[in-house]
Amino acid sequence: MRSENTTFRGGPLDGRVLPVLVGATGHPPKWYEVPVPDAHGGPATVYTYRRVPAGYSKRLGVQRGWVYEYAPEGRERHTPKWPWSKPN
């Protein structure tokens, strides 16, 4: 499988560049979770990162790749949007 060096922003991995496996489309996953074991044998702490565009070129506006930003609130819940449902 192919991997891509991806930068992490914020959180405990701030500034690090790690190889992340890319999928069939050539993009890294939308969410990246890093489990950190507890030193005292308790439950592991999971740090969550969200994939965002790294930036855009000035002239053509082409995307320049991806970075992961720290999401302290964790992963967002996905609920299907049905046409007959009332908006919240």
Question: Can you offer a commentary on this structure?
Answer:
The protein has no helices and 5 strands. The protein has 88 residues and is mainly β. It has one domain. It has a 5-stranded mixed β-sheet, with no helix packed on it. It is extended and about 50 Å long. The mean pLDDT is 90.
Tally of individual helices: 0
Cα separation of the termini: 42 Å
* Mean pLDDT figure: 90
Largest sheet: 5 strands, mixed
In N-to-C order, the SSE pattern is: EEEEE
Strand order of the largest sheet: 2-1-5-4-3
List keywords for this structure.
single chain, 88 residues, mainly beta, 5-stranded mixed β-sheet
Short description:
It contains no helices and 5 strands. With 88 residues, the chain is mainly beta.
SSE inventory with pairings:
Blueprint: E1 3-9, E2 17-21, E3 31-36, E4 45-53, E5 66-70
Parallel strand pairs: 1-5
Antiparallel strand pairs: 1-2, 3-4, 4-5
